[in-house]
Amino acid sequence: MSKHNVHILAIESSCDETSASVLVDGIIRSNIIYTQTIHEKYGGVVPESASRLHIKHILPVVEEAIQQSGIARTDFNAIAYTQSPGLIGSLLVGSSFAKSFAQALDIPTIAVNHMQAHVLSNLIEDTRPEFPFLCLTVSGGHTQIVKCLSPLNLEIIGETIDDAAGEAFDKSAKMLGLPYPGGPLIDKYAKEGNPNAFKFAEPNMPELNFSFSGLKTSILYFLQKEKIKDPEFITKNLHDLCASIQATIIKVLMKKLVKATKETNIKTVCIAGGVSANSGLREAIRAYAERYHWKYHIPKFEYCTDNAAMIAITAYYKYLAGETTELSTTASARSIQ
Ligand code: KG4
Ligand code: ZN
Question: Is 50 exceeded by the pLDDT of residue 335?
Answer without folding.
Answer: no
